[in-house]
Model the fold of this input.
Amino acid sequence: MPDKSNTFVLSDETVNSYGFTIKTSGIKIERFKKNPVMLYQHDEALHPIGKWENIRLQGTQLVADAVFDRNDPLGNMVADKVEQGFLNATSVTVVPLSGIYPSSGDIVTGK
Done:
């Protein structure tokens, strides 16, 4: 079981860096759960640095436990940064089902 310090909030209902809000109840995670890879800096060209386990909705938060690939040099480095307290947040890539990204101030509710 992952260490509690490796539990991250992947998304919540606060305004994100793009200026819109995603309602947690509308997040569709079934596809992600089938291949819950952890990427470094959203870079799909790089190999995964770990995976997410115990992906769950907790109130208004999408939460998961990080399991770092300690055999991968980059995964190992990121794991060390997390354990030392230098990294304490994560972000997710949002792909709207409609294909249209929301505008600043929008609230995305899902279907």
Q: What stands out?
A: The chain is about 15% helix and 25% strand. The chain has a mean pLDDT of 87. The CA atoms of residues 29 and 55 lie 8 Å apart.
